[in-house]
Amino acid sequence: MQKFVLLFSLLLFTFVLSAQNSSPLGLWKTIDDETKEAKSHMELYEKNGKVYGKITKLLLKPADTVCEKCKGEKANKPLIDMILIDGLVKSGEQWKGASILDPVTGNYYDCTIWLSESNENELKVKGKHWTGLSRTQTWYRIKS
Predict the structure, then answer these.
(1) Mind listing the pLDDT tens digit for each residue in 23-49?
(2) What are φ and ψ of residue 67, in 5° steps?
(3) Which helix (H) or strand (E) covers residue 66, if one does?
(4) Beta-carbon neighbour count of residue 86 at 10 Å?
(5) Which domain range does residue 115 map to?
(6) Separation of alpha carbons 56 and 31, rounded Å
(7) Is 26 helix (H, G, I), strand (E, B) or coil?
(8) How many angstroms separate the CA atoms of 19 and 54, rounded?
(9) What's the CATH number where 118 sits?
(10) Any idea what DSSP says for residue 67?
(11) DSSP 8-state assignment for residue 142
(12) Is residue 18 classed as helix, strand or coil in its secondary structure?
């Protein structure tokens, strides 16, 4: 009986870990499109059933860097802890229905994210401009 309980507990633990990795929630490393260097750490978290994303660490700029190109309430505010993704909703295997802010340009884009089919530690992040132009980045899960 003890072997059964131990085996069941192990299987349950494995399932829970697997379920956590099939979620976009957690800490992700972003990559600069031009230099291919690690640029920042983004935390994706859930609040009221929606997924939000904020910068937790800058890797190429000082920690006190502000958003010079942002408009409105985010103008000249620190990038650290700034919410860039504002409330994605799960739709099938993707999360969408929100915008993402590019702090380099100050522009907002429609945002869709999904986990890579080949590697759940890679997150595809697509920003689409109202003109139809889009760009997809790959973010990498930071394991704690």
Answers:
(1) 999 999 999 988 999 999 999 999 999
(2) -85, 95
(3) none
(4) 16
(5) 2-141
(6) 14
(7) strand
(8) 22
(9) 2.40.128.520
(10) -
(11) P
(12) helix
Distance, CA of 11 to CA of 20 (rounded, Å)? 14
User: 41 and 34 in contact (C-beta within 8 Å)?
Assistant: no
Q: Please give the DSSP secondary-structure letter assigned to residue 57.
A: E
Amino acid at 60: L
Instruction: Indicate yes or no: pTM above 0.85.
Output: no
Q: Domain tally for the chain? A: 1
Amino acid at 77: K
Helix, strand and coil in the chain, % to nearest 5: 15, 50, 35
Q: What is the DSSP pairing of strand 83-91 with strand 50-58?
A: antiparallel
The length of the chain in residues reads: 144
Residue 46 DSSP SS3: strand
> What is the Cα–Cα distance from 39 to 102, expressed in whole angstroms?
13
Mean pLDDT of all residues in 67-86: 97
